[in-house]
Amino acid sequence: MITKVGNNVFDSDKIEAAAPKEEPARQYYFIGIAREMLKAQFEADVSSGEAQRRYGKETLDAMLADEVYGTFKVVTFGCQMNARDSEKLTAILEQIGYREAENEDADFVLYNTCTVRENANLKVYGRLGQLGARKKKHPEMLIGLCGCMMQEPEVVKKLKTSYRFVDLVFGTHNIFQLAELIARRFMEKKMLVEVWEGTDQIVENLPVDRKYSFKSGVNIMFGCNNFCSYCIVPYVRGRERSRNPEEILGEIRRLADDGVVEIMLLGQNVNSYGKTLKDPISFAELLRRVEEIPGIERIRFMTSHPKDLSDELIQVMKESKKVCPHLHLPLQSGSSRILKAMNRKYTKEQYLELAFKIRKAVPDISLTTDIIVGFPGETEEDFLETMDVVEQVKFDSAFTFIYSKRTGTPAAAMENQVPEDVVKNRFDRLLKRVQEIGAEVSGRELGTVQKVLVEEVNSHDPSLVTGRLGNNTVVHFPGEASLIGKIVDVHMDEFKGFYYMGREVR
Asked: I need a surface site. Which of 171, 190, 320, 411 has the fewest CB within 10 A?
C-alpha cells in the first residue's frame, strides 16, 4: 500500500518487508520509520504556514533548530508500574522526534490508563471527551490510549462506537510497540486497535526517559497469579512473568553508572519473583545480588503479598545495609472469614505473626498497608477484627479504601453488598484511628541524625529542600538545589505529624 505523508510517499509493504523480526531491533527500526513520517508531515506544515500558526514563530524556530517535529503529552493513571511504562513511552516518542508539552494541548496525547476501579475508567472517559472537543479544532492531532483499561473488551467496543476520534488503542502486553503502531497509523489513517490477550514476551533494552536522575523504578516481573476476588489486575496484566536476573542486574548497573543511587524493584507481587524462570531464584536472592552493585545506596520494593513473604526475605532485610527499612504489606481485611472470601490465602493470625516477626527482625522498620472497608458480606464483627489488627500492628500509615465493585471480578457478583451509609461510617472510624496511630508511632527519629536522600526544592518554600528517610518519611530542611540527588546527614529537629523539619549536619 502506497501512502502519502506530507509531501513524501511511503510503501507500507516495503517497510514491513525490511523490518527485523526480533525485538527490540524491530522497534528501533520503526522508531526511525515513524521519525521519517513525522518529519515529512512537519515539513509540509512548515511549508504551508500551518506550523507557524500552530506553534508561533519563536517556538517553531526552536523546534527547527533542535530537529523536533511535534509535541506530545503522556498522561499516567494508576500505579508505579504504569509510571515506569510511561517513562518508556516518553523516551520512544522523544526518539521519534516529539518534544514533551506542559499540558494536553499537544500534537499527540497518550493516556496510559488504570482500571483497578471503575471510577478510574470514568475519569479517562471524561478527559477523553475534552480531548475530542480539542481535536475538532485541531484535526491533525493524534490521540492514543494504552494500558490496563484497554485490556477490557467492553472498553475497546465503547471506544470504537462512541470515541471514534481516537487514533491508537493498545494494551499492557504490547506497550513496547508504540513506534510501530504510530508508523502504521500514519499509513492507514484510521483508528488502529492492537490489543493482545496475553503474552509471555518481555522486550528488553527499550529506551527510557527517567523522571529523576538519582532514583528509578526497575520492573522485575509482570502480571499476577493471585486472583484476589476483588481485583481485575490478573485479567488485564496477564500471568506472572519474571525477567531474567542478569537483565535486571545489568539494567541496575547501567543506572548506577548514570548516577542513580536509589532503585525501586517493581512487580504486582515481588515476593513471587523468579518462580517462572527456567532457573528459578528467590526474590531474597535477587536482593542480595542487587546489594552488591556499587553506587546503589538504597533498595526499595513493592508490592509484597503476605502469603509469599519468606523468612529468607526477612533475614535479608535484617542483614542488608541497603534495603530500606520500609515494608508495604497489604492487609486488606483483619477478618479471616473476609480474607478467605477475598482469596488472599492467609488468616488474621498468620498476618499478625508475620508482622511481629518482621518487627522483631527489623525493629526500626516502617510498616504500611492497604485496607478495604465494606467488602461484600462484611459485618461489624469483621470490621472490628480489622480494627484489632490496626491496633496490634500499629502501622505507620495505611491506604484505606471503600470497596468498589469491579465488573469482571468474582466479588462484583457476591451477595450481601454492604449498605453505603454503613461502609462510610466504618471507613471514617478506620481512617481516624489509622491517623491517630500513625501520629503516635511516627516521629521515632526525633532528635537523631538521619540520612536523607534529597529529591527536590520545596514547592512551598524555595529556601528549603525536601527528601526522604530510608523508611520513606518526608523531611524538609534548609538547603540548595545542588543537594538534589545526594544523601546527606540531617538532624531531625521537629516532628510535624507526618514529616520532619531538620537541619543539615556537616
From this structure: 190
